[in-house]
Amino acid sequence: MRDTNRAPTRRGALQLALGGAAASAFASGAGAQTMTIKPSAHDILVVVDVQYDFLPGGSLAVPEGDAVIPVINRLATRFAHVVLTQDWHPKGHSSFASSHPGKKPFETTQLHYGTQILWPDHCIWGTRGAEIAKELEIPKAQMIVRKGYRPEIDRYSGFIEADRKTPTGLAGYLRERGFKRVFCAGLATDFCVAWTALDARKAGFETYVIEDACRGIDTNGSLARALKDMDEAGVRRIASADVA
Ligand code: VGL
Ligand code: ZN
Predict the structure, then answer these.
(1) For 41-91+120-242, CATH number?
(2) Are strands 43-48 and 181-187 parallel, antiparallel or unpaired?
(3) Considering every ligand atom, which ligand is closest to the CA of 190?
(4) Which pLDDT belongs to residue 114?
(5) CA distances from 11 to 4, 8, 20 (A)
(6) Could you tell me if the CB of 119 is within 6 A of ligand 1?
(7) How many angstroms does the Cα of residue 86 sit away from the middle of ligand 1?
(8) pLDDT tens digits along 57-115
(9) Residue 17: which of 231, 221, 210 has the closest Cα?
(10) Domain regions of the chain by residue span
């Protein structure tokens, strides 16, 4: 773990939020501290891809994906500012296995920007699977960022296309509105949430992932890799209970 992007007073609760050996060592050793974050006018909650296709019964269902909904609904009452992202693909999108003869979902292929994991058809615009779940109660959400709408580029991050070059404008929006801290929640931890959090960090925001408000797909070690990448980038992992 790195401490470079962490305030010392938050260390205890972060250890607890991580779970496992580090947490129990910390809790039995120095004693647990609690971290309470009170969202201010400079904080924004980014709710990633809570859409029917990522929920149980959907075409790319994330295990326990629906468990994030009540957690996010409570969190959203704590934040004055919320934006949503929406995975939004045209039919025949290049990230779909069905667009690559002979390929099956969760295999990979080389596209012009590098290795692409191939997915079942999902979040096709105009379909119910692409809709943001009605059970998400966030009427105050201020913007919906759609992503993945170009046939030839998949996008996991709310900030940058998968070619790692083309910005979406979200960083500019957040800066222009004066936000300093970005809190990420939603689906899936190891893809859209992680990439959004990593890009928020890169764009200079203090960035948090609220772990129990996320669930992962976990294909070929993707979850462990995403958590490691976020730790190394200084993305802070917290629990929803830390948000007052
Ligand atoms: C996602 C795979 C493909 C996500 C989107 O929202 O994490 N994952 N498209
Ligand atoms: Zn997608």
Answers:
(1) 3.40.50.850
(2) parallel
(3) 1
(4) 83
(5) 11, 5, 15
(6) yes
(7) 10
(8) 999 999 999 999 999 999 999 999 999 999 999 999 999 999 999 999 999 998 887 88
(9) 210
(10) 41-91+120-242
